[in-house]
Amino acid sequence: MKVVILAGGFGTRISEESQFKPKPMIEIGGKPILWHIMKEYSYYGFNEFIICAGYMQHVIKEWFADYFLHNSDITFDFTKGRDDMIIHNQHCEPWKVTVVDTGLNTMTGGRIKRVAPYVGNEPFMMTYGDGVCDVDIGKLVEYHQSHGKIATLTAVILEQEKGVLDIGGDNAVKSFREKSRTDGAPINAGYMVLNPEIFDYIEGDNTIFERGPLEKLAAEGQLMSYMHRGYWQCMDTKREKDMLERLLEHGSAPWKKWKD
To answer: SS3 of 178, please?
Structure first.
């Protein structure tokens, strides 16, 4: 199953660094948060990624272009009058990464719609490129496959301004709206599993995925929630970045299940 990651926004609330690179490429622990998210999926055996790039998309492409080189032991041999490169050991993950320029000002739904040809006619996972989580992705996929609906999202309860979910007793999402800080309802943490029918709910570049498509799915009873009571944190601000950095420094990052 492929993993689609939204990585095209401007990241204006963390402009201290996003003026130089896309927010998903801002580093925590010496690696972009995008890399951490991909490592989460890879831990559960999902290694094929489609990156929905936009703002400064060349930075993402160049980082992956150099990734193999930077994670290998290499001899550069110029003695024969040419550049012979001998790879001794490489320490890269078994990833297949497709980086797609989905436009500078395209909305979230539009970005997903643009990568439909790369996804194909099969279920896929989708998440945002600015948050980490310790959800069991294997169980999330199993849950999605068990209920037969079009979409499943991961729901967490946090005091943050994200999309509020009204969840019924059968775990079906009844409605979807914006959240206020005084609202203790579950929020949308991303980490979704989507059937290919989702593309029919997205009109084009101006579609905000969290509004029209998710609201319509909820109204039709096609949006289910996977309740996650563990860790989830987005990186919207410098303060949140520093908090994630401290967790990594102290060896207590909940999302880091892989070994170095």
So the answer is: strand
